[in-house]
Write a structure and sequence with these properties.
Blueprint (H helix, E strand, L loop, with lengths): L21 H21 L13 H5 L11 H12 L21 H13 L10 H17 L7 E5 L2 H14 L6 H4 L8 E7 L4 H9 L7 E4 L9 H13 L2 E9 L11 H11 L2 E5 L24 E4 L1 H4 L7 E5 L2 H8 L30 H36 L3 E3 L7 E6 L6 H17 L6 E5 L2 E7 L7 H17 L2
Parallel strand pairs: 2-3, 2-4, 4-5, 5-6
Antiparallel strand pairs: 1-7, 6-7, 8-9, 9-11, 10-11
Helix pairs in contact: 4-13, 5-13, 6-8, 6-12, 9-10, 13-15, 14-15
Bound molecules: pyridoxal-5'-phosphate.
Pyridoxal-5'-phosphate binds next to helix 6.
């Protein structure tokens, strides 16, 4: 960029109105893309876990905004100087905590294009492409994971939102209740109950809080030895609740629980839902993506009966946060629950035009479909399959190392790409073992090359390795494993 209109030179903006001229945007954009490409190229040299203390980043920011525009070079420099030290690098190949995720190249660029369009697809006519691309790409995804057609697909920000709106639909589906109009505190309103397993994600319980069911409105069903919902216990709980005056209305089954990635027996759960007239919601936020693999398709068995199913492309489909796909069998129930059209949003569009604002509590809606579209088209379904299969293979390799070492034990089945395990020592108490495992995790994470997280299974401290980043290779797992072994030795 030459002349006096570069993003680092003040004249373009002094006294001007409006946005950057196109040539300024172009130069700043190229420099930003270069910064991102360099960041991704050197990410492995950075410590995965941010090394800052609480408040440190905040204190490094000026108390007041600049009165006059700064040079773009300053902004980029502060990404390095101010922001990077406080970033935990979720895109790092050594990120093995929670659920490993990836913002892939096409996904990152898709985000940029979505920002450029800046559409708000509240109504069909406020961006037909945003609305229809979302429908089209989600139908691809539906087919990729083997859900039957037709299903109405919706992209929300997170699985928490998807589950919340799905359960709002579930509540609306109860005949004669009419909570939408009367509210849950109306006289004579029955107490509603929702069932999920002890291993379900907290988002189910949070949805119940938001929907006014209260935490007591969620009955947590015990799990079997492999952390799957105990269907006999579900059956008994529903009967018992009916007998004591509760109104059971929904079950949220999980395909890929957060701690161990266990899969609830959805076919049996679906049979109970059918018999009892309960809405079946399936939370497949993490593991739904695995169903692109023919050998993992079993995990969605029974989900053809689900009234709603959520899976997150931002978890294991290489799409940057945020993107959660919600599939509905009867979208009209959700629309009945949440459609509210003020005068200024009435439109004369064709009656079959989909207005996405009718299917959520937010009015506005970003163009999330582009990044998913670009990821699917760039890698292809076959390429996505290969990448997910590789993560599952890496998990098997890691589990085999753990199993072969008498100083460690694998503590849950490994159906996908997450391994739950712990270090063991002969002759120590359970409390001491927990404390030592906690210290092992701290030591491993302090190294900076990998980041692992933990959970508790049946109250026992458990380490987790979750593989989901496209840059993770066997050598990164080897680093984690060597660190784990030496940290265990350091504990005696
Ligand atoms: C099984 C399951 N469901 C739901 C969620 C919540 O996801 P989100 O952050 O998209 O709300 C998670 C998060 O890890 C999860 O593991």
């Amino acid at each position: 960029m030459s002349g006096d209109h570069g993003p680092d030179e003040a004249p373009w903006e002094l006294g001007d109105l409006g946005d950057w001229p196109p040539e300024v945007f172009r130069e700043a954009g190229h420099r930003t893309v270069d910064w991102v490409a360099d960041y991704v190229a050197r990410i492995e040299t950075l410590p995965v876990l941010a090394q800052v203390q609480p408040g440190e980043i905040l204190r490094s920011l000026p108390a007041n905004p600049p009165e006059h525009g700064e040079s773009f070079g300053n902004l980029l420099a502060d990404l390095d100087g101010v922001v990077l030290p406080g970033v935990t690098h979720w895109n790092h190949p050594g990120f093995l905590a929670y659920f490993g995720i990836t913002a892939s190249g096409p996904g990152i660029l898709g985000e940029m294009v979505a920002a450029a369009f800046n559409t708000n697809a509240m109504l069909w006519r406020t961006s037909p492409s945003t609305t229809e691309l979302e429908q089209g790409v989600l139908d691809w995804l539906r087919g990729m994971i083997g859900l039957p057609a037709p299903r109405f697909g919706l992209l929300t920000d997170t699985a928490s939102t998807s589950t919340l709106v799905a359960l709002a639909a579930a509540r609306e589906s109860v005949p004669g209740l009419d909570v939408r109009e009367r509210g849950l505190s109306a006289p004579g309103m029955p107490r509603l109950r929702l069932y999920t397993s002890m291993e379900a994600h907290s988002s189910v319980e949070k949805a119940a809080i938001v929907l006014g069911l209260g935490r007591e409105g969620v009955r947590k069903i015990p799990t079997d030895s492999a952390f799957r919902m105990d269907v006999a216990a579900l059956d008994a709980a529903v009967r018992e609740d009916r007998a004591s005056g509760w109104l059971p209305f929904a079950v949220s089954a999980t395909v890929g629980t957060t701690s161990t990635t266990s899969v609830d027996p959805v076919p049996a759960v679906a049979a109970i839902c059918a018999r009892e007239g309960l809405w079946l919601h399936v939370d497949a936020a993490y593991a739904g993506s695995a169903a692109v693999l023919p050998e993992k398709r079993w995990c969605l068995a029974g989900c053809e009966h689900a009234d709603s199913l959520v899976t997150n492309p931002h978890k294991w489909l290489f799409v940057p946060i945020d993107a959660s796909a919600l599939f509905l069998r009867r979208p009209e129930v959700l629309r009945r629950a949440l459609q509210l059209v003020p005068d200024y949003l009435q439109t004369s569009a064709a009656p079959d035009a989909v207005n996405l604002m009718d299917y959520g509590f937010q009015l506005g809606r970003r163009f999330r479909a582009i990044k998913l579209w670009w990821v699917i088209r760039t890698f292809g379904v076959e390429g996505i399959r290969r990448r997910i299969a590789e993560h599952c293979r890496l998990a098997e390799v890691f589990a085999s190392w753990v199993e072969a070492d008498p100083g460690f034990e694998v503590v849950a089945p490994v159906p996908f790409s997450t391994i739950c395990f712990r270090a063991v020592w002969p002759g120590i108490t359970a409390a001491e073992r927990d404390a030592r495992n906690e210290r092992v995790l701290e030591r491993v994470n302090a190294d900076g090359r990998v980041f692992l997280s933990h959970t508790k299974l049946c109250g026992v401290y458990t380490l987790r390795v979750a593989i989901g980043n496209l840059r993770t290779e066997e050598r990164h797992l080897r680093v984690a494993w060597d660190l784990l072994r030496s940290a265990r030795e350091g504990e005696g």
